[in-house]
Structure formats: C-alpha cells, structure tokens
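User: Here's a protein and a ligand (adenosine-5'-diphosphate). What would the complex look like?
Assistant: Let me lay out the input and then the predicted complex.
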Amino acid sequence: MNVLFVSSEVFPFAKTGGLADVAGALPDALAKNGHTSSIILPFYKCVKDAGFSPELFKKLKGFNLYFLKHNGVSVYFVENDKYYNRDELYGTPQGDYPDNALRFGFFAKAVVASIPHIGDLDILHCNDWQSALIPLYIRLFHKKDAALNKLKIIFTIHNMAYQGLFGREFMARLSLPGKLFTPNGLEFWGRLNFMKAGIIYSDAITTVSKGYASEILTEEFGCGLDGLLRTREKDLHGIVNGVDYSVWNPATDKFIAKQYSGKNLEGKEECKKDVLKEFGIKYDKDQPLIGMITRLAEQKGIDIVADAMKEMLALGADFVLLGFGDEKYNSIFRSLAKEHKGHVGAKIDFDNALAHKIEAGSDMFLMPSRYEPCGLNQLYSFKYATVPVVRAVGGLDDTVENFDPITKKGTGFKFKDANRESLLAAVKNAVTIFKDKTLWNALQQNCLSQDYSWSSSAKKYEEFYNL
Ligand code: ADP
C-alpha cells in the first residue's frame, strides 16, 4: 500500500507531545513492513533551526513543497513562512496563535494540492484537528478527481479535547459553504469545529487505545462530540500506540549517563545519580525518585500532584518534573521547586535529552491524568525499568496492570479517582514495595518484559487499511 500520513508534528522534526512520536514512528514501521510511506507536515522554524535541509521539490500555488528522505520514509514539508516560520507550533504559554484556523486551513488545502505530486496513494491518514478539513475538502470539492476519490481516508483522534474551535467568520475564509454551519455539520455551539469535519467526512476513524475508543462515546470523555461519534461507532476503532525502541531504549540511549539493559540494572543507578545532580538533590539509594515529563495542562492532573506534594515527600520520596505549558502551572512548579529545594526539582522547558535522563534515572513515573488517550511515557518507562504510577483511565488503564505482591504479577500502580487521597494511596503503595528489593526487582522485570514495539501496532493499522 501507498500511505500518506498527515500530521502537524513529527519527531524528530517538530514535537510538542505524543502525536509527534506516533507520526515519527508509524510511517517508518509501515515502510519496514514493505509499504510505501510518506509524511507531510508544515515547514516550521524549528525544522530550519535544527539544521534539517530538505530540498525544494515543487513550487505550488501559494507555497513550496520541500522533500527529505528520512529512514525509509519520504517526508514533505509545506513551506509558507507567513504561517509557519514562528517560534512555536501552535502558540505561546499565553495562548494559541489567533490565526490557527488560517494556518491549518491553509495546511489542509496545501496537502490536497500536493497529493497528485506525491504519488499514486491508496491511504490518506489524517491526524487530529489540524488535518481534519482535508477529508471534507476532498469529498466535497474534488468529486470528479479519480485519484483523490479512490483514496481511503482515515482520521485518527489523538486527543478529543483539542478540536480546533474558531469563530464562524472563518467559514468563508476557509471556503467552507455556509450551509455546513449547522449542528449536524461543522457548527459546535456557535463556533466552527474542525474535528467534526474529520469525523464526518473520513471513511474510518481510529483512536489510540481501545479504552479511549469506548470512553469517547460517553458524555464524560466525548468533549461534546460523543453524540456525533456514536453515529460512527461501527467505523471507530482503538489501536494502541507503540514505542520506537530505536529512540527509547536504555541499552542504546545516548542521552543517559550510563546505558543499561534489563539483565543488569546497575547503570540505572548511575542515571539516577545523574538526574539528581542535575536537579540539586542528594543521592540516597533507599529514597525513591518519582519522575514526571509532561505538557503542563489540566488534562495531566498536575494540580493534583501539586496538592499532594508535601505528603508525597513525607513518604520519603524525591520528585522531579520536566514540563512546559500553561503559565499558571509553570509558575506553580517553579514555586514548589523553590519551596522544597533539595527534594523537588522542576525544569520548565521542553528538553528532549532531559526527558530521556528522567525516564532512565527515576524509580517511578507518575501519570495522574484526568483522561489519557494512550499515554506514551508509561510505555517508555517499562523499557527503562521505571515503574509507572498512573490513574486508571484510557490508555493508562489498558497498558498498566496493578502489581500484586502475593502473585508478583503486574507492571505498576493504578488509582481510580482524580484526587490527592487516591494518588497518595498509590504512591504510598509504590514506596512500600520499593523498600522490598525482591518484590521491586520482580516488578521491574515485569515492566521490562512488556513489548510495545510499533511493528505489532503497525500490523493492526495495515489490517485496518485493508478493511
Ligand atoms: P501528550 O501527547 O498528551 O502530550 P503523550 O504521553 O502521548 O502525551 O506523549 C508525550 C510525549 O512528549 C512523550 O514523548 C514525552 O516524553 C514528551 N514530552 C512531554 N513534555 C515534554 C517536555 N517538557 N520536554 C520533553 N519532552 C516532553
């Protein structure tokens, strides 16, 4: 099959979260399985700054299309400096860029215009609201174009909460017919909703775990689109994300202080010392280190962590966080690090190298998400023998099994409610088991035995493309 993957972020070119990791790895896994696979994304400033130098491939109306071969995958970049040559991908901590509707509306049109130059495609795989207008443009405006019409269009939802909501005035500016502005069309409580276009006009919809696929059909997790999703229930599938073990593997990880593997975890202790030093925390092998790497957004339950911090430290744990996001949370964690100097470290930044160090150097990895479509760091944590402590929701609930000290089965610690007491009970449990080295080793080995390589998830996508 010939597949074009459309994403607003792709690792290693541009990344703010998990979508980039998926868009970086899935096309590669498909190529390894013998398919022709391409990706298209905006040509952001960060791509230029990082020194990637794609070649000019085609001059098209209003933009230039650039090309680069990366591993086995053809990567296309839509260049329009007015829209994409900015410091961030979507906005600053103060808020989203006000012209995001135009930026990603333009991207959608540019992708459609690029398709004839990219090849004889079978599958067009769009992701999240930033590419959600593409199915609409193709199905409504290109009915007579045989090459576009034969495409099977898949739309993957990585997060229901980000739908691309804009003022009605953008309808005309994006060439969207006014008659589509109804509750059955693109309207969402008086605003234009990009994600609705993806859900309505795609042939099939996927999301990134089985648990989340059923959750989003409910009012609690559907973010106002559960009704629409229920009309497409038979076309909605959950496929869990994989891990790119060429990027996330302590045996080969170039960012960490000492490489290690499951057979010998001594290197992990060196990594712990290294992270603690980075954050000015004293090393004590009997004191567990809890790590977090996250977008600082309400979704991630970080207010609950802030609330529980004192008691968490009282359990005898240290805590480090790498995060970036809403200014309100950025400043809460800056203050917590000051208040608990020597036991709490916080780096408010996006830092890929430090993310690897924290995965390797932490004993436990905390993910108290209010909702979590899949979650990737718990899967990375397995590989680094870092035990996840997670809220039992979405992909976290699907992938982490509560540890039972009697049977010695399980891969982490789960808690049900999004509150301080519930989180603390799970952390307390983890700290207790940490003190029993035999049990802790058994738990780490269970984590290490997990296999989330992309090849098996990519196979599921292939089956799905073939349906
Ligand atoms: P989401 O996509 O909701 O942000 P995921 O768990 O699916 O959450 O993926 C998050 C990805 O982004 C992981 O690869 C994680 O390591 C990375 N990440 C998140 N915040 C940061 C940060 N501040 N610095 C470096 N990497 C980060």
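Summary: The radius of gyration is 22 Å.
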